[in-house]
């Protein structure tokens, strides 16, 4: 239908007078009465080609094109009715909201991936150190002429396999640059090849050289013996399981056995060796890591030999549902633990993994009331020495100072009790040797100090200054084995051994 001229003129007037209100709409209907005076503008409208500048209005040609999308007609009363469809130039609110939602989603995903990357960076740092240690060990093996046993190679293989497993996990889940991960993978692969080459060396030549070295050592020993024939005899060290000494005067550097079998996330726990006076050198090795909450003892493992423990082989894994804290010990094939959320002590038969007996420790504070410094849930700390079973704890009456009790290992009755002047939460851990309590404290992230003792034989207490190196920052538990005269230390998930040095008594 051809547009009516009066309607067209009315529409132009409307656009000219109120462009702001019309421009932002998609459709506008305007009604004007018909007048005869509009005819003289017909030629001006059809021939106009002048463009305005600076006003934001389009040129007349584009305006004519825009105004072609309209209809106009007159009703019965002579009123002009016009409708025009203008371009949609409204603000895109819905699109902006969608963009905001997408931006928030992307931010959350980025933060999640960033946290994963940070975790992998920490894991890479740990395994870089292990790889460095392995490199040093293999370099020594390459240069040394002493024969190495199959166990030495198996231990290295296990560590390399652990790193290979981690690298595979990193490659699957790592997002971003993987140059470091690829480099580590290559180094680990080279390490595996190197170990295999070392195993295929001429073992006969190595054994021959070792025999020569042993022969030279024997000759040197004979020379040393001949030099000291006329010197006064030095008192021998105390026999295993004997208390014929003047107490602990020094300690060796730590020997790292391995990481606990559940992994480095299980930083709290205890480990040691069963001691029985009837069979002092034949006890089982046990490892009891707590759950990652640092409180609940749920699983423990038993090994017949140290080699089995080192190789993670022939293990007996048991489950219990009541252990709490790292104050666990094993004595005469029974495990003694603090019963969960109580001041009770439980005696567990290791052969059957059943509770043989429970008994309440009178007045003992529990549930993290007076635990050690940096170690939670160890209010009740059990110990074994040459004299039997002991427990260290605190009471409300002692205002947090350490209390030592000797226990009957059969009935768990308290036989005798001693009160110290040492505040328990200021101590990092304790152990018993020949009826003497020794306490440690932290000097820095790599050093502890055996700084305090209490002798239950004489009732005396005092200060010591024995420096104790450690592999990680916190000591979670210390257990003493009377026959081996060693400390079994659980150090942030790692199993450490220390040899004790005693003051010799002249005979």
UniProtKB/TrEMBL annotation:
Residues 242-504 form the Olfactomedin-like domain. PANTHER family: OLFACTOMEDIN-4 (PTHR23192:SF7), OLFACTOMEDIN-RELATED (PTHR23192). This is Olfactomedin-4. Residues 49-70 are annotated as: Disordered. The keyword tRNA processing does not apply. Residues 181-226 form a coiled coil. Residues 49-68 have a biased composition (Low complexity). It comes from the Eukaryota. Keywords: Coiled coil, Secreted, Signal. Its main location: secreted. Residues 1-19 form the signal peptide. It is found in: Secreted. One of its GO terms (cellular component) is extracellular space. GO terms for biological process: signal transduction. The gene is OLFM4.
């Amino acid at each position: 239908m051809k547009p009516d001229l009066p309607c067209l003129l009315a529409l132009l007037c409307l656009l000219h007078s109120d462009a702001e209100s019309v421009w932002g709409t998609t459709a506008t209907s305007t009604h004007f009465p018909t007048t005869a005076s509009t005819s003289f503008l017909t030629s001006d409208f059809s021939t106009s080609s002048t463009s305005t500048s600076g006003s934001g209005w389009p040129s007349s040609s584009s305006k004519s094109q825009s105004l072609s999308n309209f209809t106009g007609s007159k009703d019965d009363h002579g009123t002009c009715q016009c409708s025009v469809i203008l371009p949609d130039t409204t603000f895109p609110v819905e699109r902006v909201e969608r963009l905001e939602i997408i931006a928030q989603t992307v931010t959350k995903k980025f933060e999640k991936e960033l946290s994963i990357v940070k975790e992998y960076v920490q894991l890479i740092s740990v395994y870089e150190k292990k790889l460095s240690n392995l490199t040093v060990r293999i370099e020594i093996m390459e240069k040394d002429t002493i024969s190495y046993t199959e166990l030495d190679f198996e231990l290295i293989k296990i560590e390399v396999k652990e790193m290979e497993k981690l690298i595979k996990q990193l490659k699957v889940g790592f997002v971003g640059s993987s140059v470091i991960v690829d480099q580590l993978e290559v180094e680990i692969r080279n390490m595996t090849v190197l170990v295999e080459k070392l195993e295929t060396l001429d073992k006969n030549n190595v054994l021959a050289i070792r025999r020569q070295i042993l022969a030279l050592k024997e000759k040197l020993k004979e020379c040393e013996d001949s030099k000291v024939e006329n010197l006064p005899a030095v008192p021998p060290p105390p026999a295993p399981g004997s208390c014929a000494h003047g107490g602990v005067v020094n300690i060796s550097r730590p020997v790292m056995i391995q990481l606990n079998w559940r992994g480095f996330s299980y930083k709290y726990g205890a480990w040691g060796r069963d001691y029985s006076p009837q069979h002092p050198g034949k006890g089982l090795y046990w490892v009891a890591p707590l759950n990652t909450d640092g409180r609940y003892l749920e699983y423990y493992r038993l090994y017949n030999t140290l080699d089995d423990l080192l190789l993670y082989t022939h293990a007996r894994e048991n489950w219990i549902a009541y252990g709490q804290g790292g104050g666990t010990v094993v004595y005469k094939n029974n495990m003694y633990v603090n019963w969960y959320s109580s001041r009770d002590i439980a005696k567990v038969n290791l052969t059957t993994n059943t509770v043989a007996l429970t008994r309440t420790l009178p007045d003992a504070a529990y549930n993290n009331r007076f635990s050690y410094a940096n170690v939670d849930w160890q209010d009740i700390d059990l110990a074994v020495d040459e004299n039997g079973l002991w427990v260290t704890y605190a009471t409300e009456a002692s205002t947090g100072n350490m209390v030592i009790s000797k226990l009957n290992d059969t009935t768990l009755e308290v036989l005798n009790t001693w009160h110290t002047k040492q505040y328990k939460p200021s101590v990092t851990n304790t152990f018993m040797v020949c009826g003497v309590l020794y306490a440690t404290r932290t000097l820095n992230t790599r050093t502890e100090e055996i700084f305090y003792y209490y002798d239950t034989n004489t009732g005396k207490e005092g200060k010591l200054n024995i420096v104790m190196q450690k592999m990680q920052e916190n000591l979670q538990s210390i257990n003493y084995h009377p026959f081996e005269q060693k400390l079994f230390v659980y150090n942030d998930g790692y199993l450490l051994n220390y040899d004790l040095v005693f003051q010799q008594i002249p005979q």
